[in-house]
Each structure stands twice: as C-alpha cells, then as structure tokens.
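pinging the channel bc i need a second pair of eyes. not urgent but kinda urgent?? the chain im working w is below, pasted from the shared doc
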Amino acid sequence: MARETGGEGAEKPLRSGEVARRAGVNVETLRFYEREGLLPEPPRRESGYRDYPPEAVDLVRFIKRAQELGFSLGEVRELLAARRTPAAKSAPVRRLLAAKAAEIGRKVRDLQALKEVLDGMLDTCDGRRSLTACPLIAALNRGD
C-alpha cells in the first residue's frame, strides 16, 4: 500500500479513523492503547483531531498481534520496549516467550482435566432422568 505524502515527500499524518481502519481495530481501541501507554498520544490539530504518524498503523498491528498470542498488556509493554531497541539482545524477549509458552501449557493441561471431568458427567447423564439425578447439578449443589 502506498503511503500518503504531503509536501516535499513527507508522509501525511493520519486521523484516528484511518489508523483504526488500516490496523483493523476501532477508534476506542486506539484511545485505550493511548490510556494504557502502549500507543503514544499524537499531536492534535487546532480542531482537536489527532494526527497520528503513518507508522502508528504498524504499532497498533504489533500490539494487536501480541494480544492475540495471549500476551498481557504488561507483557506487550515489555515487547514494545524491546522493539524500540532492535540492536539489543533477544534474551529478555526469549524469557518472556518461554514464560508465555509455559503458561499456555498449564492452561491446556487445566482445560484437559476439566474436559475429562465434564466428559465423565456427560457419560452418566442420559438426559431422560430428572435434574436431581443430573451429575452436573448435583456437583454444583455440593460445591464440587
């Protein structure tokens, strides 16, 4: 996609709606990222409109992709800090990645155990008996 340019080859600033559209988010997401300190607040026109630099689109996409991979906002901040110093060693990012992979592994194991419990209840619930014989209702009533 060609960049919009102003005079002398300078890239034209983008308004909030255009950044949001290009990045695949809504304008409120931009505001949220600004409040959280993930996206620098851009300068404003006299009219109050925000003027984002064109590279804000890539930054928002980066944040969005990191969140889609399960990184928390705090972790995204760490990734953004690393992104700003590309010559730095990748060890801190690798540690963050390893921790996230371990966390996801724990969640997968927890979900598998939960699925086994639910499958066991499903095996004993034929759907024809009263709710008093339903293993899920009984377990919830007992506080299991």
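so DSSP finds six helices and no strands in the chain. and Residues 3 and 11 are 7 Å apart (CA to CA). — does that match what u expected or am i reading it wrong
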